[in-house]
Design a protein that fits this description.
Layout lengths: L5 E5 L4 H10 L4 E3 L2 E5 L5 E5 L7 E5 L5 H16 L4 E6 L18 H10 L8 E6 L15 E5 L2 H11 L5 E5 L5 H11 L2 E9 L5 E6 L7 E9 L3 H12 L5 E8 L5 H7 L11 E5 L3 H7 L5 E4 L2 H10 L7
Parallel strand pairs: 1-2, 1-5, 5-6, 6-7, 7-8, 9-10, 9-12, 12-13, 13-14, 14-15
Antiparallel strand pairs: 3-4, 10-11
Helix pairs in contact: 1-9
Length: 324
């Protein structure tokens, strides 16, 4: 019997990534057809344009907002209702991942809430796998219940590619914004054979951070700061000033998730050190968050690398190539 291709659907915000994934493996993947309308009261209508019965399904959608999270959930329920055989949900950016534990009394652990919501998709004879990329907390997959399968992918190949493209003739150090990311950065640094530097810092309050020390000699070196995500940019600016104060030359930033709300990118581009010199040379992120894709069109300061190949390689190696 001829193999059926796996059908790939997506939320509205992640159409670009679903199309890129399918384009890389057209022999095994195809875009699913979906009728989608927004009513005047903002309610969202979905209808499958064709049967998904006994088909393997992939949904691409990050939990980047409450509305996006519910669209992922609604699409998954739709596939189950109309008898899909299996489901993989690709979550390029897992929202609320820094709220993975309660720090203060009575705080809500929203990362766990999202995991439990998606865990409720498990039904008899309907296997579900959740695929996530470069999570801020390694423990988040443990929050999924009811036998949901989880896969955690790492985008380090994109980090290496970006460093190789941007590095100059000066020696460079791989930096990170704080000691909490040192283990992950140390692994990257070991693979490319460079030194690692990180910032010892002290949080004074919710908005104030004091830099205490830099762990490596960066004098005369370029620094590539890696962080798993960039949001407002405050932590990066503090780290960048710390490296520059210790003699760093050009400072680049490489991050998996470019969330960059509001004027965060503009803030980073305009950041200067204590002598008024431009702080960052360039920023590289992936297309795991749609905001980064939109911002790249307006800024030469930002480069966005795609994770489509990373995802496609994983999917086609793990059952995304159709079934007999």
């Amino acid at each position: 019997m001829k193999r059926k291709k796996t059908l790939v659907f997506s939320t509205v915000s992640y159409r670009y990534l679903a199309r890129a994934i399918v384009a890389l493996a057209p022999e095994s993947l195809e875009l699913g057809e979906l009728v989608r309308r927004r009513f005047p009261d903002r309610e969202l209508y979905h209808r499958l344009a064709a049967s998904v019965r006994d088909r393997d399904i992939i949904i691409v959608g990050g939990t980047i907002s409450d509305a996006e999270t519910m669209e992922v959930y609604d699409l998954a329920c739709l596939m189950h209702r109309y008898k899909a055989r299996s489901l993989q949900i690709i979550i390029p950016y897992f929202g609320y991942q820094t709220m993975e534990r309660a720090v203060k009394p009575f705080e809500d652990v929203k990362a766990k809430n999202r995991a439990l919501l998606l865990s409720s998709l498990i039904k008899p004879n309907f296997p579900v796998t959740i695929v996530m990329v470069d999570l801020h907390s390694e423990g988040i997959p443990e929050y999924f219940e009811n036998g949901v399968g989880t896969e955690h992918l790492y985008a380090k190949a994109i980090v290496f590619k970006s460093i190789d493209r941007l590095k100059g003739v000066r020696p460079f150090v791989l930096g990170c914004t704080d000691a909490g990311r040192a283990k992950w950065c140390e692994s990257l640094a070991r693979e490319i054979g460079v030194r690692i530097g990180f910032v010892f810092k002290h949080r004074v309050d919710g908005e104030t951070i004091e830099e205490l020390a830099i762990s490596a000699d960066v004098d005369g070196c370029d620094v590539f700061i890696f962080d798993d995500m960039i949001r407002t940019g405050g932590t990066l600016i503090n780290a960048g000033k710390g490296y520059r104060a210790k003699g760093a030359r050009d400072i680049y930033v490489i991050s998996t998730h470019g969330v960059l709300p509001g004027k965060a990118l503009e803030r980073l581009e305009n950041a200067v050190d204590d002598q008024g010199r431009k702080l960052f040379k360039h920023i590289v992120v992936t297309d795991s968050h749609p905001n980064a894709v939109r911002l790249e069109k307006r800024s030469r300061f930002l480069t966005v690398e795609t994770i489509a190949q990373l995802l496609t390689d994983h999917l086609t190696a793990n059952g995304g190539e159709g079934n007999d």
